[in-house]
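Section 3.1: Structural characterization of target chains.
Under the original work plan, the team committed to producing a structural model for every single-chain target entering the pipeline before any wet-lab resources were allocated. The record below documents one such target. The sequence was received from the expression subgroup and is listed exactly as submitted; it comprises 363 residues.
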Amino acid sequence: MAFNFHIDPDIRKAETLPASFYKDPAVFEALKEQVFYKGWQWLGDTSLVALPQSVYPFVLLDGFLTEPMVLTKDNQEDLHLLSNVCTHRGNLVALHPGKAKKLSCFYHGRRFDLAGTFEHMPEFDQTEEFPRPCDNLHRFPLKQYGPFLFGGLEPSFDLQEVFDRINERVGFLPLNDFKFDPTLSKDFLVHAHWALYCDNYLEGFHIPFVHQGLNEVLDYGSYQTVCYEHCNLQIGYTDEATEVFELPEGHIDYGKKVAAYYYWVFPNMMFNFYPWGCSVNVVKPISAERTKVSFLSYVWDPSKLNKGAGAQLEKVEREDEFVVENVHNGLRSKFYKAGRFSPTREQGVHHFHRLLAHFLNRA
């Protein structure tokens, strides 16, 4: 389904997406095919299949995309992202993570190698023109950034371009030394449309009004947003001498006191880099009124935890939830149609809305 959302490229003239975008069930359904199928999704990190001949089955955005997948590492230590649906009768192939030399369907015995290539099927000797390429497990695009893994269903842009942009500022960090800390990771249920959560993340405009503690750390006057093609960056500077990045000479921000780099990747991923490491936030739609947000902490320097802009992340999250849920309730009004953008503070939201309009309009 094609739509006709218009976001003026000139932020000074533009209006936000209309309230109907967040309320129309047809739009919510279209977002699956026209936005999420065409983008990239967070899968986790390489520890999911740490050893050769390992498998990790999962469901991508369960309850929304609900796509059964399996991540594998073969004997040559190559990674593969495959459909977890047998090409015979649709049974799930891998049921549990762990060691596996092959992928074998327990229903009728069809077997695949760890790259998804069909190998054997009993009682098919008389089947003509078999096997065909469609008898292999479907292979999905897989990308890696440091230890982080990303998959796409039918992505319409190259994620490497995003990695290149992120590397411009955090490429000096030893990402492969970042360690997942489950004690600092948590899921949050937000009673609001997923895009409203992204809207809120994409501007620092609300910081002085909503996040008193964070505002005391960041220099709001010099807060900066940089927009790229399929991602954008918010830079949090600070007046404090401590809890900033030790930027190497030649760095684009060398000499500046940077407390945090906040990267958003279209449509629903955030990568927040602090001196202690990285907080990955994944915004997962459940319904037009329910969203799960996963906070995943990857720690590099534990001595810098709970300091500076990277402190009290759960408190900041709860404050954001309160605002986003109130906006969601406000959009129920018959009398609110659309708003305007602050040209100096809402460049990220404007960028997001233009991308959403572009992807929805082009069907």
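The longest strand covers residues 277-287.
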